[in-house]
Write a sequence for this structure.
């Protein structure tokens, strides 16, 4: 699997953090309809909905271990 | 989009997710993909998860947050609504691709697994007794996600109805 091609063929599963950060920077630079910065809507600490999914799996795992 | 104020900040358009936050979301999504594959008993190494489709789904889910604040009387989206919207975009962009073999409806299977996982968590938090859906209903849901045209409003209703 080639993960070096720019902009295409990026496999999330095998990317390094550096590669992910670079790709995010490129993707954000291409977007012209938004701004970034000290925006309170995005800086407030909130639990991600993805954590909610992950915690559901952990619950299931704890239950099957307890059985 | 009209101008809108929230917490003293003026919004005239969607404010992009900051890089660090998006990176954090990507890592959580990566983990959520792996957990779903584990639960399904499918080898994730036979698949390719497209990075750009994933961040597109994450960004669009985030955009919906501002939409809700603006058009639904500053209402915050609950976790199930966000999961429904994220699921909708994952089904649209289909970030999971087969390298060799494997089920063709893998994106739908993963989304369904996430929905059931989040429902389990929701029921635990709200003390609603957990019940397991029959294999027939699960099969029908998978069929609907694969072949029916489902909007994100419908997806939100579906997830919240299944959870209650």
């Amino acid at each position: 699997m080639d993960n070096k091609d720019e902009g295409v063929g990026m496999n999330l599963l095998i990317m390094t953090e550096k590669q992910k950060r670079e790709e995010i920077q490129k993707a954000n630079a291409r977007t012209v309809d938004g701004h970034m910065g000290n925006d309170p809507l995005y800086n407030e600490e909130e639990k991600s909905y993805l954590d909610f999914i992950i915690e559901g799996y952990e619950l299931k795992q704890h239950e099957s271990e307890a059985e | 989009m009209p101008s809108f104020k929230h917490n003293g900040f003026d919004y005239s358009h969607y404010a992009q997710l900051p890089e660090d936050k998006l990176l954090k979301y990507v890592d959580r999504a990566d983990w959520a993909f792996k957990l779903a594959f584990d639960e399904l008993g499918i080898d994730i190494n036979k698949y390719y998860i497209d990075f750009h489709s994933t961040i597109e789904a994450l960004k669009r889910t985030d955009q919906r947050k501002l939409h809700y604040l603006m058009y639904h009387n500053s209402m915050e989206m609950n976790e199930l609504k966000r999961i429904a919207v994220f699921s909708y975009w994952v089904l649209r962009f289909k970030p999971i691709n087969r390298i060799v073999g494997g089920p063709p409806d893998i994106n739908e299977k993963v989304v369904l697994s996430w929905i059931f996982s989040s429902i389990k968590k929701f029921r635990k938090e709200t003390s609603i007794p957990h019940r397991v859906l029959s294999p027939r209903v699960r099969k029908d849901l998978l069929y609907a996600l694969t072949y029916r045209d489902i909007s994100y409003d419908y997806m939100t209703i579906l997830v919240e109805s299944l959870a209650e």
Notes: Residues 61 and 161 of chain B are 20 Å apart (CA to CA). Chain B has six helices and four strands.
